[in-house]
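I am still getting used to backbone structure tokens and would like to learn alongside you. To get us started, please write out a protein record for me. Start from the sequence, derive the backbone structure tokens from it, and show both lines together. Once you have written the record down, we can walk along the chain together:
***
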Amino acid sequence: MTRPVQIPDTLKLTRYQKLPELGPRVLFFSGGSALNGLSRTLKAYTHNSIHLVSAFDSGGSSAVLRKAFDMPAVGDLRSRLMALADETVLGHPEIVRLFSYRLPKEADADSLKHQLNRMEQGKDPLVRCIPNPMRSLICHHLGYFQQAMPDGFDLRGASIGNLILTGGYLNNNRTLDPIIFLFSQLVNVRGTVRAISGDERQLMAELEDGSCVIGQHLLTGKEVAPIRSAIHHLSLVRSQKKPKPAGSKLRKSNRKLLASAELICYPPGSFYSSLVANLLVSGVGEGVADNPCPKIYIPNLGQDPEQFGMTLRQQVDALIAYLQADLAEPVPVSRLLNLVLLDSRYLSGVDETFKAHLDTLGIQLVDMDLTDPAQPEVYDNEKLVSALLSMT
């Protein structure tokens, strides 16, 4: 079945803006920060978006927490919650400020411990301005983190929001969902944010030159030099020290969220560590195939180090292959991917051969103005949100 769609659908978008609490359930598989700007725009149109976020990050302050507590990464979850937080007068900007605050990088260990103690006691100005009972809840989780914090833990540059999430994770039998739910309530998150998996796992990439890279931070090109060989296969392993294959299963709560989506989006961002990483969790491909809603892929406009050597056609094929790998038997591509949405003015590889390949797969190409000429390497958030919501 098909139906005509007008993009942008001004009438539909106006209706969503007037009643965002009744907006569509658009689901994103993502991680990292690439989708945070879009999320801030999105919450003006719908309070029902769903964000399944990879918790396999192994860089920055998340790496320090993972090493200390053998836990999933919480940094990307925190930043997405902040992006979706209510910024109106009905929200809690004082909590957003606290959760976004990072301890100074240049301070000595004793000063940082003293500052953290004052926060846990509710005496620091950032905490003192938060009304009860929210202040007590925050102090409780910070206190739990301090009790569990190992000797020599490096607090320099630590995100207070990450520390609160960690305290809640440890205090709730090492599960993420309860503290993420509490976090969402504290800042009035306009959507649903969940970790795709609560399992402690690392990403392992087998490169075409025969080498292996273990750890998300070694793929992104942000903390170390970019990879110089294309990624042949991505998988989950137990740890960096013990890189044995280790699966992860989609929880029932996330399966229900996936089934409820009115549109599924494979968004721009780090192709392997933010997008494909989510698809490695068992049950994701099956859940996507079982949901009859439209599925849309939006390729990156700028340079993604993880896509070294990849053409646009290879990106589409890889996306489908990882989804199919989760299924007992192959399904028609139409159950996994229906549309590719892009702006070909600033994207190479959108030629007749690519278009013919999409036709063969039964995938529709939607090529339209989605950028600001002043920043052609990124999508314009307003244009992209308008296009996506017009398809719901």
Notes: Residues 60-193 form one domain. The chain has two domains: 10-53+252-390, 60-193.
